[in-house]
C-alpha cells in the first residue's frame, strides 16, 4: 500500500528551497549532525566557559542513537514500499556516514540517561517549536522525506549533493530539462 501522495505545496510554508530540496533545518537528523560536529570539534582544552559547558552538558550520543534507530525504521519503511534497491543502498550509505561515523567517534562517551534524555527532549522540543514557527510540522516533513526517497527524487540535501558530486566527477552534464544525466544516484 502506497502512502498518500504529497499534499500540495503551500508556498507560505517554505518547506522546500528554491531548488526543490527539503530545507535541511527542517530535518532533525541535520540538527543532530550539527550538534555532534559542535560537540566533537570543540577542543577539550579550549579556554572559556562555553566550550567547557558544551563538553560537560551536551553530549549528542543519545541523540545520534535515536537518529540511527529512526533511520533504520525509515529504511524498513522504504523497503516496505518496494523502493528501488539502489535507493536503499544510498540510504544505507547515508546512515553509515551520518550516523555510523559519529557513533564510532563517540564510542568512548557514556550516556548519562536522565541528563541526556532531558537535554535531548529540550533540543527536540526546540526543533518542534521551530517547525511550528515556520508553519510546518514533523509529520509533513517526514512525509515529504519518505516520498522523496521512495521515488528517487533526491529532495534531501545529502542525496542531492551526492547526485551533484557524482555527476561532476563523471562529467555528466544536466540535461536540457535541468535534470542530471544518468547516474547511480537517479534510482
Account of the 3D structure:
It is a single chain. The protein has 187 residues and is mainly alpha-helical. The chain has a domain at 24-139. It has 7 helices and no strands. The chain is globular, with a radius of gyration of 18 Å. The model is unreliable at 175-187 (pLDDT under 50).
Count, helices: 7
Indicate the structural class.
mainly alpha
For the termini, the CA-CA separation is: 20 Å
Gross morphology:
globular
Low-confidence runs of at least 5 consecutive residues: 175-187
Helix content: 55-70%
**Radius of gyration in whole Å, from Cα?**
18 Å
Count the E strands. 0
Percent strand equals under 5%
Order of helices and strands: HHHHHHH
How much is the average pLDDT?
A: 85
- Largest β sheet strand count, sense and barrel closure: none
Blueprint (SSEs and pairs):
Elements: H1 28-41, H2 49-57, H3 61-80, H4 85-105, H5 113-133, H6 138-150, H7 157-169
Q: Which terms would index this structure?
A:
187 residues
Short description, anyone?
The protein is mainly alpha-helical and 187 residues long.
Amino acid at each position: 500500500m502506497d502512502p498518500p501522495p504529497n499534499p500540495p505545496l503551500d508556498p507560505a510554508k517554505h518547506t522546500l528551497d528554491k531548488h526543490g530540496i527539503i530545507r535541511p533545518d527542517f530535518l532533525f537528523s541535520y540538527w543532530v549532525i550539527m550538534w555532534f560536529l559542535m560537540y566533537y570539534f570543540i577542543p577539550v582544552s579550549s579556554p572559556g566557559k562555553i566550550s567547557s559547558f558544551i563538553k560537560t552538558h551536551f553530549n549528542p550520543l543519545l541523540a545520534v542513537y535515536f537518529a540511527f534507530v529512526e533511520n533504520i525504521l525509515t529504511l524498513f519503511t522504504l523497503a516496505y514500499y518496494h523502493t528501488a534497491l539502489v535507493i536503499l543502498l544510498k540510504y544505507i550509505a547515508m546512515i553509515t556516514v551520518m550516523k555510523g561515523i559519529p557513533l564510532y567517534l563517540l564510542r568512548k562517551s557514556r550516556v548519562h540517561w536522565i541528563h541526556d534524555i532531558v537535554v535531548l527532549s529540550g533540543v527536540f522540543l526546540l526543533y518542534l517549536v521551530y517547525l511550528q514557527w515556520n508553519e510546518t510540522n514533523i509529520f509533513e516533513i517526514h512525509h515529504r522525506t519518505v516520498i522523496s526517497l521512495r521515488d528517487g527524487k533526491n529532495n534531501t540535501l545529502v542525496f542531492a549533493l551526492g547526485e551533484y558530486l557524482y555527476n561532476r566527477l563523471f562529467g555528466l552534464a544536466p540535461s536540457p530539462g535541468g535534470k542530471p544525466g544518468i547516474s547511480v544516484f537517479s534510482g
